[in-house]
Specification:
Residues 88-99, 444-477 have a biased composition (Basic and acidic residues). Residues 126-135 have a biased composition (Polar residues). It is found in: Membrane. By secondary structure, the protein is of the alpha+beta class. It folds into two domains: 66-241, Phosphorylase Kinase, domain 1; 248-458, Transferase(Phosphotransferase), domain 1, CATH 1.10.510.10. The chain contains 16 helices and 18 strands. The chain has a six-stranded mixed sheet, with helices on both faces. The chain has a two-stranded antiparallel sheet with strand order 1-2. Strands 3-4 form a two-stranded antiparallel ribbon.
C-alpha cells in the first residue's frame, strides 16, 4: 500500500511530480485565504463611523504640490514679528521687533495664531498706524487635524460637504469667475465661508496658490482670516471666517436686509479700517501684498461695522527690491489705476488708486462708472474733480445720508480721496498716510511731506526771507 502511494505521488505531470503540484496548490490556497483575511481586517478598521458618531475624518492628508509646500514667511517677514514655520513648529518664541503678535493659543497640541501690528517705524521716520490686538478664541479649536503647512487647518472633502449640507444651493452667498462661495458650519459650531474654486485644475491650482501665498500667514483684524483649505483630487477649496453683515457696496446702495444706509461715522470707520489693513499689507510685511481688486463689494462688514478686506484671488507679491512688476491687467473696471491699465505696471500705488475710488463711492453713494447718468457724470473720478474745481463739493454728498458731515470733515475726506486717485502714481500717498489723513483734523498733507516741501521752497528761494516759506505752508494748509 505504501509502495503504491509513493509510486502514485512520484508520477510526473508536465515535468513536476504529483506531490510537488499538490504542495504548490495548497500554498496558493493558503496565500489567497491570508490575503482575504488581511483585506477584510483592514477594511473593518477603516470603515466610516456609525451614524451616532461625529463625522470627523481622520485620514492622512493628501500630498501637497511642491509650490504649496514651499510657502513660508521669509526671514524679513519673520523679523517683523511673525515666526517662520520652522520656528512655529519648534515652539520657540519669535524675536520681538517692530511688530508684535497679539495672541497665541494652544488647543490640544494644535496652535492657532492671531495678531495685529501695533507700530512699525519706517526708515524715513514715518510710522504705520496701529490696530487693536486680536484676543478672540480660535475658530479652529476642537477640530481634529492641524495643517502640516504650518498655518490654518486641513479639511477633508467630507468635512466640507457636512459643513455646507453637501454644497446646497440654499447656502450660496457669492459666485464669480473664480467659483462659488458657500456658507457653512464646522463640527465645532463655527460659521465659515467655503470658497469652492472652479474644477479647471490648472486655474484652480493657480488661484489656490495665490490666496495661500497672499494671506495664509498674515493676521489683521481688518483682513478676512483664511482658516484652512481642502485639496482632494481636482477639488480646491479655501475656508474663511464668515463675516455676517454684508459688504460695503450693499450698505451704500441700501441692498442689505433692512434696506438701511450707512451713517457718515460708520462709513469713516470702515474706510479707516480698510486703509490700515492695506497699510499692513503694503508696509508691514515682506514681501508686500498688492491686492489688485480693491472695490466696495470686496470690503466685508461685521456686526460691529468693522471692515474686512476679502477676495485675494488676484493678489500679487512684491519683493522689497522690486518697485514694479509687469503682469496681465486684471481687476474691476472703474477701480483700476491708469498706469496699470495702460502698461500692466503694478505696485502698491495701484491699490491706493482703487482705495481712492472706494472713498469717493462712500462720499457720494455713486458707482465708479454709471452710464445711466448724464455724460459729465458717468465717470465718478472725473466728475468729482470737476465739482471740486467749481467749488461745489457740498453737492456731491450722498443724498441718503441723514446727517451730513461738517464742511471741514467733508473737505478733508474729499482731498484725501483726490490725492489717492492722482493720475501720477508717485504723487499718491502711502496707505499709512491715508489712514492718518482720515483720522486727523488737519489738512491732509503729512508732516514729512510738508517738511519736504518747506525744504524745497527754501532751496528755490534762498534770497527770500524765511517768512515766505512759512506763509506758503500756511496757504497750503
Amino acid at each position: 500500500m505504501g509502495t503504491s502511494l509513493n509510486d502514485t505521488l512520484s508520477q510526473k505531470y508536465s515535468g513536476l511530480e504529483l506531490w510537488e503540484i499538490i504542495a504548490i496548490v495548497l500554498s496558493a490556497i493558503f496565500i489567497i485565504v491570508l490575503a482575504i483575511s488581511l483585506y477584510l481586517t483592514f477594511r473593518k478598521k477603516t470603515s466610516k463611523p456609525s451614524s451616532k458618531q461625529t463625522p470627523i475624518s481622520l485620514h492622512i492628508p493628501p500630498s501637497v504640490p511642491e509650490e504649496i509646500k514651499e510657502i513660508r514667511v521669509d526671514d524679513d517677514s519673520s523679523s517683523n514679528g511673525y515666526p517662520s514655520i520652522s520656528e512655529k513648529f519648534s515652539h520657540k518664541e519669535p524675536e520681538k521687533e517692530t511688530l508684535e503678535v497679539a495672541a497665541e493659543s494652544e488647543n490640544g497640541g494644535n496652535s492657532s495664531r492671531s495678531g495685529s501690528f501695533n507700530h512699525s517705524e519706517k526708515k524715513d521716520g514715518s510710522s504705520v498706524s496701529s490696530a487693536n490686538p486680536l484676543t478672540a478664541p480660535s475658530p479652529l479649536s476642537g477640530l481634529p487635524e492641524f495643517s502640516h503647512l504650518g498655518w490654518g487647518h486641513w479639511f477633508t472633502l467630507r468635512d466640507l460637504q457636512t459643513a455646507t449640507n453637501h454644497f446646497s444651493r440654499d447656502g450660496i452667498i457669492g459666485d464669480g469667475g473664480y467659483g462659488v462661495v458657500y456658507r457653512g458650519s464646522l463640527v465645532n459650531g463655527t460659521p465659515v465661508a467655503v470658497k469652492k474654486l472652479l474644477n479647471n485644475l490648472g486655474q484652480a491650482d493657480k488661484d489656490f496658490r495665490v490666496e495661500v501665498e497672499a494671506i495664509g500667514h498674515v493676521r489683521h483684524k481688518n483682513l478676512v482670516r483664511l482658516l484652512g483649505y481642502c485639496m482632494e483630487g481636482t477639488q480646491r477649496m479655501l475656508v474663511y471666517e464668515y463675516v455676517n453683515n454684508g459688504n460695503l457696496e450693499q450698505w451704500l446702495r441700501g441692498d442689505n436686509q433692512n434696506h438701511e444706509y450707512l451713517t457718515w461715522e460708520a462709513r469713516l470707520k470702515i474706510l479707516i479700517g480698510t486703509a490700515k489693513a492695506l497699510a499692513y499689507l503694503h508696509e508691514a510685511i515682506e514681501p508686500k501684498v498688492v491686492h489688485r481688486d480693491i472695490k466696495s463689494s470686496n470690503i466685508l462688514i461685521d456686526d460691529k461695522f468693522n471692515s474686512k478686506i476679502s477676495d485675494f484671488g488676484l493678489a500679487m507679491l512684491l519683493g522689497g527690491d522690486e518697485s514694479f512688476i509687469t503682469t496681465r491687467v486684471m481687476g474691476t473696471f472703474g477701480y483700476v489705476a491708469p498706469e496699470y491699465a495702460n502698461s500692466g505696471l503694478l505696485n502698491e500705488k495701484s491699490d491706493v488708486y482703487s482705495y481712492g475710488v472706494v472713498l469717493l463711492e462712500a462720499i457720494t453713494g455713486r458707482y465708479p462708472v454709471d452710464y445711466a447718468r448724464p455724460p459729465p457724470e458717468v465717470h465718478l473720478v472725473e466728475w468729482m474733480k470737476m465739482m471740486v474745481q467749481q467749488r461745489r463739493s457740498e453737492e456731491v454728498v450722498d443724498p441718503n445720508l441723514n446727517t451730513k458731515p461738517s464742511t471741514s470733515v467733508l473737505k478733508r475726506t474729499l482731498l484725501t480721496a483726490l490725492r489717492c486717485v492722482d493720475p501720477l502714481y508717485e504723487k499718491r500717498p502711502r496707505m499709512s498716510q491715508v489712514a492718518r489723513m482720515l483720522e486727523s483734523e488737519e489738512y491732509p498733507i503729512p508732516r514729512e511731506d510738508r517738511r519736504r516741501r518747506r525744504s524745497e521752497n527754501g532751496t528755490a528761494r534762498d534770497s527770500d526771507p524765511p517768512r515766505n516759506s512759512t506763509d506758503t505752508d500756511k496757504t497750503q494748509e
